[in-house]
Amino acid sequence: MGSITRVSVQYLDIVPFLSQTKLPVFTADMEGVNVYKATLPEQAVLVMGNEANGISEEVKAVVQKKLTIPRFGPDNVTESLNVATATSILLSEFKRSLE
To answer: pLDDT at position 77, please?
Structure first.
């Protein structure tokens, strides 16, 4: 409870920011590296897009690494996850990799 009050929200033009940051820039992509097998850094930027359109081509051009949450089951036909769910899984893996 109340965690949202500890979040610092900033509005900025994302492409120049991502182009200038020294941190590695990651995004979720169906063709990315399996997040459970990836070596994840202590600090990074994670860019997430919406389920329907993903991230823009402009943003894709500055992303350095793509991660995927592997599909499970006999058919591996899952199309996508809700962006909040996918973000939670990816952030959890970033945190877990530090331990």
So the answer is: 66
